[in-house]
Specification:
By secondary structure, the protein is an all-alpha fold. The protein is built from two helices and no strands.
Length: 89
């Protein structure tokens, strides 16, 4: 395996991690922003108020994007296994 192959594999791994985590992170960020605006407007400074909506949003997002994430991970893993099989040849 050449250094270029290792760099390409690392790039694909980072890209896969970013793509698989992005939907949940974006949902948590949007919900956090909405809750922050609500807290600033009403002057309710309850710290625990943000946790439950964020957790629910992340789980709903995971349910919606779960099949896509699994397909992405399976494609990445299959590609790695295929590359491993061709190293010795």
């Amino acid at each position: 395996m050449t250094p270029e192959d290792v760099i390409h594999l690392g790039k694909k791994a980072v890209e896969t991690v970013l793509l698989t985590s992005a939907p949940m992170l974006l949902a948590a960020m949007v919900i956090g922003l909405v809750i922050s605006i609500f807290q600033a407007a009403t002057q309710i400074n309850e710290q625990t108020m943000t946790f439950i909506p964020k957790i629910v949003a992340v789980f709903v997002t995971l349910l919606i994007f779960g099949p896509w994430i699994m397909d992405l991970l399976i494609t990445f893993t299959t590609g790695i296994i295929t590359q491993i099989a061709t190293i010795g040849r």
